[in-house]
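Q: what does this look like with magnesium ion bound?
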Amino acid sequence: MSTVSTAPTTAPVSLTGSNIHLAFGTNKVLRGVDVHVDAGKTTTVIGPSGSGKSTLLRALNRLHEPDQGDILIDGRSVLKDNPDKLRQRIGMVFQHFNLFPHKTVADNVALGPQKLLGLSKEAARATALEQLESVGLSAKADSRPGNLSGGQQQRVAIARALAMKPEIMFFDEATSALDPELVKGVLALMADLASTGMSMIVVTHEMGFARSVSDTVVFMDHGTVIETGPPAALFDNAETDRLQQFLAQVL
Ligand code: ADP
Ligand code: MG
């Protein structure tokens, strides 16, 4: 388990998605979603499979352009910004880490800083080694991803995202593909990152994490936010039948 500190080097930002609508053809996947994370805080998004959680993250970083609504970082709309520039500000960690198997761990982490931030090969490697240290994996820098456990590979993916000096991090079911014994270490690293003051939006089925790490929990179903608030309010005093039923199934 990692308890290494991973202090962000970029000032954290707030992010707001306001009245986000997004349809795929006739399938209205997001129907006016409001979501917010304060600077340096963690908002967790929970809800049944198919409720639109992944689509929401992809709408917020404009991998899918919303049909309606606004996205604000520190109160300023980013809808007219260059989408690539926006995505550089947002670190993403997915269920499947998608590391390049034939590159070393350090090269996987150094690639973005070199190609997208324009760092020299040496500076990119130094950044990579620094981030690998922050996730407790310095010793694996010159290994291939295939020689690491799934949990270690996911920590490399987190290091890869952090190497881009993001202002906010998105996690989409980052532990769902891991063997059960590897989940804890990755959640601990995410909790660590939250405690250093990184702004984070975390989609997860890990209710323990949602309860103990989040500042705000958002419960989505069928493309709408059913309830939102501090974890204690949602987990101990769910107001709607839908959230009560969901919690009864997952807790
Ligand atoms: P969740 O992450 O909560 O499980 P998703 O956001 O993945 O939910 O999916 C919500 C709905 O959007 C589903 O009905 C899914 O089929 C649909 N969907 C997601 N991505 C696409 C896409 N690229 N094209 C068409 N439909 C999609
Ligand atoms: Mg999903």
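The chain has nine helices and ten strands. Residues 24, 27, 29, 47, 49-55 surround adenosine-5'-diphosphate (ligand 1) (CB under 6 Å).
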